[in-house]
Amino acid sequence: MKVRKLPTLFALALLPLFSVAQTVEQTSYALINRVIPGKANWFKVQQIASKTGKDYFEIESKNGKIELRGNNGVAVASALYYYLTEYAHCQITWNGTNLKLPAKAPAVPRKVIKNTPYNYRYYLNYCTYNYSMSWWDWKRWEKEIDWMAMHGINMPLALTGQEYTWYEVYKSMGFTDQDLSGFFCGPAYFSWFWMGNLDGWGGPLPVSWMTSHRDLQQKILKRERAMGMKPVLQSFTGHVPAAFKTRFPSSKLKKTNWTNGFDDTYILDTEDPMFEQIGRKFLEVQTRLYGTDHLYSADTFNENEPPTDDPAYLTALSKRVYQAMSKPDPKAIWVMQGWLFYSDRKFWKTPQIKALLQAVPNDHMIMLDLATEIEPVWKRTEAYYGKPWIWNMLHNFGGNISMFGRMDGVAEGPAVALKDPASGKMEGIGLTMEAIEQNPVLYELMTKHTWQTTSIPINNWLDEYILNRYGSKNQHAVNAWQVLKRTAYNGKDIRDGAESILTGRPTFDSATVWTKTKLNYNRKDLLPAWDEMMLAAPACKNSDGFAYDLVDVTRQVLANYAGPLQRKWAKAYQDKNSADFKKYSKEYLQLITDMDMLLATRKDFLLGVWLADARNCGSTVAEKNLYEVNARDLITLWGDKNSPLHEYSCRQWSGLLNGFYKVRWEKFFSEVEQAMQQQKEMNVEAFDKSIRNWEWDWVNAHNTYPTTTKGESVTVAQQLYKKYHNTIKAAL
After folding, report:
1. Residues 6+ apart with CB under 8 A from 178
2. How confident is the model over 22-34, as pLDDT tens digits?
3. CATH T-level assignment (fold) for domain 120-238+272-455
4. Quick one: CATH architecture of 18-115?
5. Edge-first strand listing for the sheet containing 56-62
6. Residue 61 near residue 403, CB atoms below 8 Å
7. Helix, strand or coil for residue 655?
């Protein structure tokens, strides 16, 4: 294969294609008009130089205007959001927004000056691109980029359209569409394709998807750069099509398997001369398509172990991966996820970590401590042995719906680490959740650190959060959040949010199947939060954020109640008490029905929206059907009907509860009743095998689910409170 040699300054030569045409002022006014239409005349925007070398903003009332000054678009957007939250008492989240502004702009009594201590404010995880973003169009992306800017993000992972880069690279090497048909996965699985974990699953991917998302990525990057963000793109790590071994039989390939249920993938050894050639070609194509800010994500062993733990081997490998990006782009900075050091610490001991990291110059690598709030890897690696690193909150796995978080740890952690002499080159903070659009309180809290160096006094902050979210500092709401802080958001005992037994494949003993049903608090201790939210309802019911929170608290209480209710019908079966089994299994199914009714009142919780968005990405019936199957599969089986990852991305959503989980439980209860009538033991193993066929049929079906809400959130929550409160309290 002949690869045209690029000039060493190729990135700079190509960047004019992606230059920012608008000024900071123009970009900022456009954002203001999108966020608070008709209010741009309140503000005067001015670009100023940073006084610290890092992002900087000022806010001041002057000559009848609110002056927003910043060194770039992110700084100005942050100034706007600071003004909206601190002086207008507004809030913008994925799950509830309060933009009830007064007729006249509230004055700023004295000049506000804010500096960030962090060079980098990172955003996104590979997994976010599928668990949340699989079906996003430009309208949704535009909204998210505005949110990012207002929350101080300046270093987003930017992977949309990445598959088109791979397509061009391998087509230029002579691979045919047929060769690549088993390589590219479906749109819901790109995260794991990009990391080299799987090929083909959910495909074949239409070329029309690749071209449309190439165009979408160019719009995303143009806007992010106009705001002053520096997006992180990818570098080549060796993932090649299976046809590579046929077209290049002398190549040195490693066959690997990420998890059972998926085909092997092939990784080109870094020692093979073609590795550097393809790496060069990869950056050439990517830069022509998308420009570059010289930040490249490269994860060589995501949940796959190297063939040896020999430090010399790991050093040489790391050096070659870096050279594949630095030779074509000498300014290249390798942005590495530190997940492997957390997830496989048995392999990655001190000699191995040092060997991998120290092969790269310190100023050409940034480490993402991917789950610092769970386990700060920096503390056992001497702050990544001199590399700049970023403190991240991972928080959510798989997009599961659960009230959970480490509120105290997030309020204190970044500032404590920043001041710790042992923290080395801690140069940023970030959000690395696997999915978004849930638990907005944690994300408002974490991003508060962007413009301060001290820990956040959580009680005072919660009071302000409630005021901005609900429109008043209602005492019952304050009481409710104090309970939530001590229970759901205490961050103890479990890694991430507990799931409900309702969303798991039916069984008599949840402990043998789901390890994530363990809660980090006693069920009864959450009830006072429910009580207080109900008492707050008369004063707060017109708040969008309150409506979401009331539904979420109610959902969590009911989801928790499923556990003790399940134990009742399980005991009835063990006792051969048919009457009790029918009674409690009926109540269990009714609980699912009621939860579905509750969640139907909020668009945040509608399965139909997820499926409709997937279908809207297709331009033909065949494409629409393929994308819908991807959408259904990811949140249920994940893979095929025998997938070991089933329910990893389970969601408590209206439509999914009634249409999938409830039906599955009904089939289970029917077989249990039949076994009891025949005085036989229920064959759980046989049911488990047979239900997989029904699940697979559901994944491949195309029946529709509502895309609009039904019922009023506060009213339905109040009805369910009246129905269940005393029953649940007595049962716990």
Report:
1. none
2. 899 999 999 999 9
3. TIM Barrel (3.20.20)
4. 2-Layer Sandwich (3.30)
5. 43-47, 65-70, 56-62, 112-115
6. no
7. coil
